[in-house]
């Protein structure tokens, strides 16, 4: 087996690697918070008024989103779009933070794997040149050594000219670190879903009940035969710059498609049956019966790879999930902030 095939065979394991101790980095980030307002180009935040809504879904395809239930959330501020490459670059420059995808891998965690093959990197969507069965994601996902937030397709790639694209290859703890530096936090799942509905209620899609209102695509998702033939009807084979597609009634962009977005909640498929009715914060721990040993957090909104053929969880009320140290080139985040005394 050659080196490439060896790396590919282990890429899912690498994506589920244990977090290294980040106390030193987090301390540096806290020290930089006082300076950050003078350095970063902060995205506009919009006020989400809060209220009561129906959360989850009665769609039989989404059993972990059952039951459809009434939830009330307080008002909060939310980034109008995903955190961009430019914004994340300012964070890196200010804090010298090293993302999980850039960290060295400890051979002790991978017994039997040659140390020279334990190369930092991340998962990149790599479409095959033929039709394939949809039961094996390794046919379109590749572990690419050197793929990071600023080299999204590997060491030879760059984000130059893509400053307004959503940052990707960001793990949960990377997103938390950025949020703390920016004086913000990650949204709860309930906050995210309330904001995505835009005050329009629980429809089939967050934008309404028609896939293409007035014959136009309103989100960056996949068209064509997945994963080998993207017809690119919406104009984008991969991520689209933020604010490319229309905003929802709250003024929020890309609440569906483009990139998955981290939420702060742990993931459990049974949580909605017992979650609080007011400001739910998620369960106390994580459990996914498909991977019982993995620690997972909720992801919302789908990505440019979602369609009715595969990954239909761009639809309203559905839930995504991700291992906290996993990253890919269709995963990003946005932040929220609580209203404080003196805010108008």
TrEMBL record:
Keyword DNA-binding: no
Domain of life: Bacteria
Domain Sulfatase-modifying factor enzyme-like: 43-337
Pfam hit, one: FGE-sulfatase
Molecular function GO labels: formylglycine-generating oxidase activity
Signal sequence coordinates: 1-21
Designated name of the protein: Sulfatase-modifying factor enzyme-like domain-containing protein
Native source organism of the sequence: Sporocytophaga myxococcoides
């Amino acid at each position: 087996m050659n080196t490439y095939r060896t790396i590919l065979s282990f890429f899912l394991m690498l994506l589920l690697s244990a977090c290294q101790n980040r106390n030193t980095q987090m301390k540096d980030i806290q020290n930089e918070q006082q300076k950050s307002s003078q350095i970063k180009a902060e995205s506009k935040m919009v006020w989400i008024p809060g209220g009561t809504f129906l959360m989850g879904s009665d769609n039989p395809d989404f059993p972990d989103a059952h039951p459809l239930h009434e939830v009330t959330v307080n008002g909060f501020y939310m980034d109008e779009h995903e955190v961009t490459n430019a914004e994340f670059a300012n964070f890196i420059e200010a804090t010298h933070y090293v993302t999980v995808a850039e960290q060295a891998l400890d051979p002790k965690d991978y017994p039997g794997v040659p140390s020279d093959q334990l190369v930092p990197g991340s998962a990149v969507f790599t479409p095959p040149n033929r039709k394939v069965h949809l039961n094996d994601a390794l046919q379109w996902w590749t572990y690419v050594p050197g793929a990071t937030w600023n080299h999204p397709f590997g060491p030879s790639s760059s984000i130059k000219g893509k400053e307004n694209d959503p940052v990707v290859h960001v793990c949960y703890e990377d997103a938390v670190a950025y949020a703390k530096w920016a004086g913000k936090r990650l949204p709860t799942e309930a906050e995210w879903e309330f904001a995505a509905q835009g005050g329009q209620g629980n429809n089939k899609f967050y934008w309404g009940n028609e896939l293409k209102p007035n014959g136009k695509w309103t989100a960056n998702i996949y068209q064509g035969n997945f994963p080998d033939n993207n017809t690119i009807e919406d104009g984008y084979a991969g991520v689209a710059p933020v604010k490319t597609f229309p905003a929802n009634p709250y003024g929020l962009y890309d609440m569906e498609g483009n990139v998955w977005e981290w939420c702060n909640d742990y993931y459990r498929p049974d949580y909605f049956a017992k979650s609080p009715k007011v400001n739910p914060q998620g369960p106390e721990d994580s459990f996914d019966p498909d991977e019982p040993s993995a620690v997972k957090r909720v992801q919302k909104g789908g990505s440019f790879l979602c369609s009715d053929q595969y990954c239909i969880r761009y639809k309203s009320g559905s839930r995504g999930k991700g291992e906290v140290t996993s990253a890919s080139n269709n995963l990003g985040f946005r932040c929220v902030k609580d209203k404080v005394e003196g805010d108008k």
